[in-house]
Each structure stands twice: as structure tokens, then as C-alpha cells.
Design brief:
By secondary structure, this protein is an alpha+beta fold. It contains 8 helices and 15 strands. Strands 1, 6, 7, 8, 9, 10 and 11 form a 7-stranded antiparallel sheet that branches. Strands 2-3-4-5 form a 4-stranded antiparallel sheet, with no helix packed on it.
């Protein structure tokens, strides 16, 4: 309860000081190219342009190892849907859910979310893998039962969006208004209202001017692994000490990591990092 109250107070504050990308770009128009980056496109509304997979006949079916289970991707007049079909007609059952949100820029792949009852967000069972240009089973789903039930918890959204407001109904329920998709300008520069009102450089955060550990903390929020929350999701701001918000697991020396592992820890082990003052952005232009 204490965390929920604290988070609600935080959101009141956030609503007063965050202004959105459009306001930032009024003065920083040359940064409009950021809107095409993988960071910004890491979550989007589901549209014909944002969904990478094909809905064309013959390319819109995912067959599973269960012979009588398949999924069909459908473009309808009222939106885009995933339909799971179990059994052989006429003795078959089907479940359809809408593509509501796209997670992932498509550079590596995408997965998709739908709004369920009680404002809950769930992952759809079929994702898209760019390397093979094909629909595939979504992470966390098997392929032996008709299933649309994997909840999307706040920690997932914290890295794939700029803000969502969890509500107390369940672990995967969110307010359907005022969320901010993608990694926005203010996700990495902090609240912009005072900066915009005063036109003062000192009223906004330039991550490059932060101490090295705080620069690394900003990247580690999403590139340090899932971790264990020590404070409400979306409460960390650029310049904060990440250890006050998230406890990250340190990978073993021989551990193989995917994109959800502690990538920053691997960099910190390197000879380059240990013998220099480099940070992530020394090599990566966000």
C-alpha cells in the first residue's frame, strides 16, 4: 500500500513537470531524427505500419508442434487480430485478441500486447522474428495449448516505454490514458517543463555531464537485466543512483546473456572499461 500511495503522489508530480516530445522538438527540431531510432520505436500503437509481420494469405499462419493448434494473424476492418484455433473444423474452438501495442522496433523482432478486461495488459502468443522474417512463438509461451494469458508486469514496460500508471486491480493493470510509449526525450533528460519555461540549460539534465556511475546507471535501468525492484517502477529519474531503485543480478563469468541480461556488467568487466573513463555512449549513439 505504501508503494502504491508513493507512486500515486509521484504521478501527480510527473504530470506537472513532463511536457512530451512535441514540446521538446519545437526548439530541438534537428533531433527529430531521434523519432526513427530503435529506442523511440521500442513501443508503439499497433498499426499497419508498426506491425512488422505479414498478414498476407499464406504468410499469416503460425503452425505449432501440436498438430491441431495454429494461430492466424488477421487484418480486419476494425483492427488487427491474433486468432488461436484448436481442433479440426467443425469441432474446433478459437480465441481472438486484438493487436493493441507493439513492443520492439523490429530491428531484431517484435512482440505484441492486448488490453484485456479490467484494464489488464497481456502478451499475445505470437511474436515476429526479423532474422527469419516469420511469426514465432512469443517468449514465455508454449505451443501445446491455446493460451493468451501471459501478464505484462510493470518492469517490462519500464524499459519499453516512458511511463505507465499501474493500478491496484492486479499486477498487470494500468490506466489506459496518459501513458507514454517509446523512450521519450524526457526518459533520459528528465522533466522538461522548467527547462522549457525558463529556456535554461541548467534546468534539464545532459547525461554526458553526469558522473560516470550515474551515466552507467541510466543505461543499466534497461540494459542491466530484469533485477528486483526496490522502489515503484517508473520512479527512477536520470541522475539517480540505480541501487536505490533496483537490485541487479551480477552474471557469472561464463554466463551467456541475451538482450534481457546485464549487458552493462559485461562492459564493466572489459579491459577497455577498466583502463579508461569510457561509458556506454562512448561507442553507442543513442
Amino acid at each position: 500500500m505504501r508503494l502504491q500511495v508513493g507512486f500515486s503522489l509521484l504521478l501527480v508530480f510527473v504530470a506537472q513537470v513532463y511536457i512530451g516530445n512535441d514540446k521538446c522538438l519545437l526548439c530541438h527540431a534537428d533531433y527529430r531524427k531521434y523519432l526513427g531510432t530503435a529506442h523511440h520505436l521500442t513501443s508503439q500503437p499497433a498499426t499497419a505500419n508498426s506491425i512488422a509481420g505479414s498478414f498476407a494469405a499464406g504468410k499469416n499462419i503460425l503452425k505449432t508442434s501440436q498438430r491441431e493448434l495454429q494461430y492466424r494473424m488477421e487484418a480486419r476492418a476494425d483492427g488487427f487480430f491474433q486468432t488461436g484455433i484448436l481442433g479440426t473444423p467443425p469441432d474446433s474452438i478459437s480465441v481472438s485478441e486484438r493487436f493493441d501495442l507493439v513492443i520492439g522496433s523490429g530491428r531484431k523482432g517484435q512482440t505484441y500486447l492486448y488490453w484485456g478486461k479490467e484494464d489488464q495488459l497481456f502478451q499475445l502468443p505470437v511474436s515476429y522474428w526479423t532474422e527469419v522474417a516469420s511469426w514465432v512463438n512469443s517468449p514465455g509461451y508454449g505451443d501445446r495449448s491455446l493460451d493468451f494469458s501471459r501478464p505484462v508486469v510493470p518492469r517490462c514496460l519500464e524499459c519499453h516505454a516512458s511511463s505507465f500508471e499501474p493500478v491496484a486491480k492486479s499486477v498487470n493493470a494500468y490506466r489506459r490514458s496518459n501513458y507514454v510509449l517509446g523512450i521519450s526525450c524526457e526518459k533520459c533528460h528528465g522533466p522538461g517543463k522548467q527547462h522549457a519555461d525558463l529556456n535554461a540549460a541548467g534546468a534539464i539534465v545532459n547525461p554526458a555531464k553526469l558522473p560516470r556511475d550515474r551515466q552507467m546507471a541510466l543505461c543499466s535501468l534497461c540494459h542491466g537485466g530484469i533485477g528486483i525492484a526496490k522502489a515503484p517502477e517508473f520512479s527512477f529519474k536520470v541522475g539517480d543512483a540505480l541501487e536505490d531503485f533496483l537490485r541487479l543480478e551480477i552474471p557469472r563469468e561464463d554466463e551467456s546473456l541475451d538482450v534481457h541480461g546485464n549487458q552493462v556488467a559485461l562492459l564493466e568487466r572489459s579491459k577497455c572499461f577498466k583502463s579508461s573513463t569510457m561509458t556506454c555512449s562512448t561507442c553507442h549513439d543513442v
